Protein backbone atom coordinates (compact mmCIF):
# COMPACT_ATOMS: atom_id res chain seq x y z
CA UNK A 1 0.00 0.00 0.00
CA UNK A 2 1.24 3.49 -0.80
CA UNK A 3 2.79 5.30 2.18
CA UNK A 4 1.14 8.57 1.15
CA UNK A 5 -2.29 6.91 1.27
CA UNK A 6 -1.57 5.64 4.79
CA UNK A 7 -0.45 9.12 5.89
CA UNK A 8 -3.73 10.52 4.51
CA UNK A 9 -5.69 7.86 6.43
CA UNK A 10 -3.86 8.76 9.66
CA UNK A 11 -4.60 12.42 9.08
CA UNK A 12 -8.29 11.61 8.44
CA UNK A 13 -8.37 9.60 11.68
CA UNK A 14 -7.05 12.60 13.59
CA UNK A 15 -9.57 14.89 11.86
CA UNK A 16 -12.40 12.49 12.77
CA UNK A 17 -11.29 12.38 16.40
CA UNK A 18 -13.34 13.97 19.15
CA UNK A 19 -12.05 17.43 19.95
CA UNK A 20 -11.90 18.26 23.64
CA UNK A 21 -13.86 21.44 24.19
CA UNK A 22 -11.76 24.39 25.19
CA UNK A 23 -8.45 22.65 24.35
CA UNK A 24 -6.35 21.93 21.32
CA UNK A 25 -6.45 18.21 22.05
CA UNK A 26 -8.24 15.53 20.08
CA UNK A 27 -9.08 12.00 21.18
CA UNK A 28 -8.52 9.40 18.47
CA UNK A 29 -9.35 5.73 18.17
CA UNK A 30 -6.13 4.16 19.40
CA UNK A 31 -6.79 0.79 17.75
CA UNK A 32 -7.33 2.36 14.30
CA UNK A 33 -4.26 4.60 14.72
CA UNK A 34 -2.08 1.63 15.67
CA UNK A 35 -3.47 -0.37 12.72
CA UNK A 36 -2.51 2.43 10.32
CA UNK A 37 0.95 2.71 11.89
CA UNK A 38 1.42 -1.07 11.49
CA UNK A 39 0.46 -0.77 7.82
CA UNK A 40 3.00 2.05 7.48
CA UNK A 41 5.69 -0.20 8.92
CA UNK A 42 4.81 -2.77 6.29
CA UNK A 43 4.66 -0.19 3.48
CA UNK A 44 7.96 1.53 4.26
CA UNK A 45 10.07 -1.54 3.36
CA UNK A 46 8.11 -1.75 0.08
CA UNK A 47 9.18 1.82 -0.77
CA UNK A 48 12.78 0.95 0.10
CA UNK A 49 12.55 -2.18 -2.05
CA UNK A 50 11.38 -0.02 -4.97
CA UNK A 51 14.44 2.18 -4.55
CA UNK A 52 16.70 -0.89 -4.29
CA UNK A 53 15.12 -2.35 -7.44
CA UNK A 54 15.80 0.94 -9.20
CA UNK A 55 19.44 0.82 -8.11
CA UNK A 56 19.72 -2.79 -9.29
CA UNK A 57 18.15 -1.84 -12.61
CA UNK A 58 20.66 0.99 -12.95
CA UNK A 59 23.51 -1.42 -12.20
CA UNK A 60 22.15 -3.91 -14.74
CA UNK A 61 21.91 -1.20 -17.42
CA UNK A 62 25.46 -0.11 -16.62
CA UNK A 63 26.70 -3.69 -16.81
CA UNK A 64 24.96 -4.16 -20.15
CA UNK A 65 26.47 -0.91 -21.43
CA UNK A 66 29.93 -2.01 -20.28
CA UNK A 67 29.44 -5.42 -21.89
CA UNK A 68 28.30 -3.77 -25.09
CA UNK A 69 31.31 -1.44 -25.01
CA UNK A 70 33.64 -4.39 -24.40
CA UNK A 71 32.01 -6.33 -27.21
CA UNK A 72 32.35 -3.37 -29.56
CA UNK A 73 35.98 -2.88 -28.54
CA UNK A 74 36.66 -6.56 -29.08
CA UNK A 75 34.97 -6.45 -32.47
CA UNK A 76 36.98 -3.37 -33.40
CA UNK A 77 40.22 -5.09 -32.37
CA UNK A 78 39.35 -8.20 -34.32
CA UNK A 79 38.34 -6.17 -37.30
CA UNK A 80 41.52 -4.10 -37.16
CA UNK A 81 43.65 -7.24 -36.95
CA UNK A 82 41.87 -8.63 -40.02
CA UNK A 83 42.56 -5.44 -41.97
CA UNK A 84 46.17 -4.95 -40.92
CA UNK A 85 47.35 -5.30 -44.54
CA UNK A 86 45.55 -2.15 -45.59
CA UNK A 87 46.81 0.90 -43.64
CA UNK A 88 43.91 3.13 -44.56
CA UNK A 89 41.36 0.59 -43.41
CA UNK A 90 43.31 0.07 -40.19
CA UNK A 91 43.30 3.80 -39.52
CA UNK A 92 39.57 4.02 -40.18
CA UNK A 93 38.90 1.04 -37.90
CA UNK A 94 40.87 2.60 -35.09
CA UNK A 95 39.03 5.89 -35.48
CA UNK A 96 35.71 4.04 -35.57
CA UNK A 97 36.61 1.96 -32.50
CA UNK A 98 37.60 5.06 -30.56
CA UNK A 99 34.41 6.78 -31.61
CA UNK A 100 32.29 3.80 -30.57
CA UNK A 101 34.13 3.54 -27.25
CA UNK A 102 33.66 7.25 -26.62
CA UNK A 103 29.97 7.02 -27.53
CA UNK A 104 29.56 4.00 -25.25
CA UNK A 105 31.22 5.88 -22.40
CA UNK A 106 29.01 8.92 -23.00
CA UNK A 107 25.90 6.73 -23.09
CA UNK A 108 26.98 4.88 -19.93
CA UNK A 109 27.59 8.18 -18.13
CA UNK A 110 24.21 9.47 -19.29
CA UNK A 111 22.43 6.31 -18.10
CA UNK A 112 24.32 6.44 -14.78
CA UNK A 113 23.45 10.10 -14.30
CA UNK A 114 19.77 9.56 -15.07
CA UNK A 115 19.58 6.51 -12.83
CA UNK A 116 21.31 8.39 -9.99
CA UNK A 117 18.92 11.32 -10.38
CA UNK A 118 15.94 8.99 -10.32
CA UNK A 119 17.19 7.16 -7.23
CA UNK A 120 17.89 10.47 -5.46
CA UNK A 121 14.41 11.72 -6.34
CA UNK A 122 12.80 8.53 -5.03
CA UNK A 123 14.87 8.55 -1.86
CA UNK A 124 14.16 12.27 -1.28
CA UNK A 125 10.43 11.69 -1.67
CA UNK A 126 10.64 8.72 0.68
CA UNK A 127 12.58 10.82 3.20
CA UNK A 128 9.92 13.55 3.03
CA UNK A 129 7.16 11.00 3.52
CA UNK A 130 9.00 9.48 6.49
CA UNK A 131 9.57 12.92 8.02
CA UNK A 132 5.90 13.84 7.57
CA UNK A 133 4.73 10.50 8.97
CA UNK A 134 7.16 10.75 11.88
CA UNK A 135 5.92 14.26 12.70
CA UNK A 136 2.32 13.05 12.67
CA UNK A 137 3.18 10.07 14.85
CA UNK A 138 5.03 12.29 17.32
CA UNK A 139 2.11 14.72 17.39
CA UNK A 140 -0.26 11.82 17.99
CA UNK A 141 1.94 10.52 20.78
CA UNK A 142 2.08 13.96 22.39
CA UNK A 143 -1.68 14.28 22.15
CA UNK A 144 -2.15 10.83 23.65
CA UNK A 145 0.30 11.63 26.49
CA UNK A 146 -1.35 14.90 27.49
CA UNK A 147 -5.01 14.11 27.07
CA UNK A 148 -7.26 12.72 29.74
CA UNK A 149 -7.73 8.95 29.37
CA UNK A 150 -11.13 8.32 27.80
CA UNK A 151 -11.52 4.74 29.03
CA UNK A 152 -11.00 5.48 32.74
CA UNK A 153 -13.82 7.23 34.48
CA UNK A 154 -13.17 8.33 38.03
CA UNK A 155 -16.23 9.11 40.03
CA UNK A 156 -15.43 11.76 42.56
CA UNK A 157 -17.74 12.76 45.30
CA UNK A 158 -19.43 15.82 43.91
CA UNK A 159 -21.06 18.53 45.95
CA UNK A 160 -24.70 19.03 45.16
CA UNK A 161 -26.95 21.95 45.67
CA UNK A 162 -30.44 21.23 46.94
CA UNK A 163 -33.37 23.41 46.10
CA UNK A 164 -36.37 23.78 48.37
CA UNK A 165 -39.22 21.55 47.30
CA UNK A 166 -42.85 22.36 47.24
CA UNK A 167 -45.73 20.08 48.11
CA UNK A 168 -46.29 19.03 44.46
CA UNK A 169 -42.77 17.58 44.16
CA UNK A 170 -41.80 15.58 47.27
CA UNK A 171 -38.13 14.99 46.22
CA UNK A 172 -35.57 17.80 46.22
CA UNK A 173 -33.96 18.75 42.91
CA UNK A 174 -30.17 18.29 42.83
CA UNK A 175 -27.87 20.19 40.53
CA UNK A 176 -24.59 18.29 40.24
CA UNK A 177 -21.54 20.04 38.93
CA UNK A 178 -18.60 17.81 37.90
CA UNK A 179 -15.24 18.55 39.41
CA UNK A 180 -12.85 19.98 36.82
CA UNK A 181 -9.11 19.46 36.75
CA UNK A 182 -6.95 22.51 36.12
CA UNK A 183 -5.98 23.03 32.47
CA UNK A 184 -2.86 21.08 31.49
CA UNK A 185 -3.08 18.58 34.37
CA UNK A 186 -3.75 14.85 33.96
CA UNK A 187 -6.35 12.92 35.91
Topology:
Layout: H1 3-16, E1 18-19, E2 26-27, H2 30-82, H3 87-146, E3 160-163, E4 173-176
Antiparallel strand pairs: 1-2, 3-4
Task: Name some characteristics of this structure.
187 residues; mainly alpha; two-stranded antiparallel sheet; 4 strands; 6% strand; rod-shaped
Characterization of the model:
With about 190 residues, the protein is mostly helical. The strands form two sheets. Strands 1-2 form a two-stranded antiparallel sheet. A two-stranded antiparallel sheet has the order 3-4. It has helices spanning about 5-15, 30-80, 85-145, and strands at about 20, 25, 160-165, 175. It has one domain (about 5-150). The radius of gyration is 36 Å and the shape is rod-shaped. About 70% of the residues lie in helices and about 5% in strands.
- Portion of residues in helices? 55-70%
- How are the strands ordered across the major sheet? 1-2
Poorly predicted residue ranges: none
Strand content: 5-15%
How many domains comprise the coordinates? 1
Supply the number of helical segments: 3
**Rg from C-alpha positions?**
36 Å
From the N-terminal CA to the C-terminal CA, the straight-line distance is 39 Å
Question: What is the H/E order?
Answer: HEEHHEE
Main structural class: mainly alpha
Biggest sheet architecture: 2 strands, antiparallel
Short description:
With 187 residues, the protein is mainly alpha-helical. It has helices at residues 3-16, 30-82, 87-146; strands at 18-19, 26-27, 160-163, 173-176. The protein has one domain (3-151).
Amino acid sequence: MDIQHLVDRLEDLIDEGRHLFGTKYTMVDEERALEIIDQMRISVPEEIEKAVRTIHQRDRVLAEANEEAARIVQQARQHSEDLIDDQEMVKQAKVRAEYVIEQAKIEAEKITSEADEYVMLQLSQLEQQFAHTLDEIRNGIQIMQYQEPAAVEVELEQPSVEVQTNEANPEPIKFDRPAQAPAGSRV
